[in-house]
Amino acid sequence: MLGSKKKRKKVIGIIFMLLLAAVISCGPSKNAMAKPKPVMPPENVSVWLKSATSLRIKWNKSEKADGYIIYKYNKKAKKYVRVHTAKKNQRSWVDKNLKTGKIYRYKVASYKMVKGKKKQGKKSYPVSAKTYGKKAKVVNAETINFGVMDGDEVGICSTLKMSGNIIGDSSVKALNTDIISERLIWSSSDETIAQVDKNGVVTTKEKEGTCYITARAHNGVKGKVKINIVNYARPKSFPYYNGGKEYVNIMLTTYRENVFNIATYFTVNRKKGVWGDIKMDEEGNITGYPDFDNIAEIEEDVRTILANFPLVTEISYSSNRVEFLMKYDKYGSSYCRIDYCIDDDLSGVVNRIAPHWAAVNFSPM
């Protein structure tokens, strides 16, 4: 009996040790051990003239930040050095006792308190500004104007040169002033819709939608313009068309999707120097396709039109237009052309049916 008690105690002790080892080996989860994400730098950092000897640095609130650190570039050290630590609710700081007529550069970083220590995130983009008096002729940026109107439409797969005009500090008395730097930093709110390069050239993608193009001046001043990217090959309506042409009506109803798919295809795959005519021979073979890898995308649409709507005898394409040619007799002496012009040189066409679309008659129907 006594021996059996000792055995039971020994077994219980072993089980306890095994359970303890299992608990220890499991430990905290990977998520619990993961390091906290670094706090993001504040947005919209900018620097403004406050007086001839002081500059005000401003920034927006950074989510989850417990405070901010301002850095100023030091020429001797050849790096940005810490000059001020701001509290959580602080959104600006004035750098005083500066030399008049000198340019100063700054960056701002956010920090979060972790175990009693400041855990700093990455620094913001650099901003710079000059100190000067009321009669200065070289000043900081104040606003940015664009040559493009806010809300303008731009076609898919096209380019647009943005012109950003920097307006200088209006507080100075001089009528003609220069900006300390004409350089602009360009960015896009959605690069899947439109991209912008360092020169302000916007390139739209195949995707429709709204995109904001932003230009940032030397001191962080920003200008923003909204552009709506649309597919002109697929108009939602035909505002210039009265519906008076029978065969045009068929094209814009029965074969609407086929026509729009083909026009969209050549919008996306436009290439300079590439042109030709797509036709169907008497045996039903289609010839004239361009040598594009993804030509299969429109083969069914092309065949649907050429095989089922005999009036359409050919589809012509080039780098800036697609034409659907309809003949009313076997000699082709009477015909109509449905035109989609990517670069929109249809302003002189009488039978315009939609932006970038027209029905051109070469003899009475």
Structure summarized in a few sentences:
The protein is an alpha+beta fold and 365 residues long.
Could you say which overall geometry the principal axes of the C-alpha atoms support?
flat
The count of helical stretches stands at 5
Over all CA atoms, what is the radius of gyration? Answer: 34 Å
User: Numbering strands along the chain, what is their spatial order in the largest sheet?
Assistant: 21-20-22-23-24-26-25
Judged by helices, strands and strand pairing, the structural class is: alpha+beta
Query: How confident is the prediction overall: mean pLDDT?
Result: 88
Largest sheet entry? 7 strands, antiparallel
Uncertain runs are: none
Instruction: List how many beta strands DSSP finds.
Output: 26
Helix content: 10-25%
Approximate strand percentage = 35-45%
Alpha-carbon distance between the two ends? 117 Å
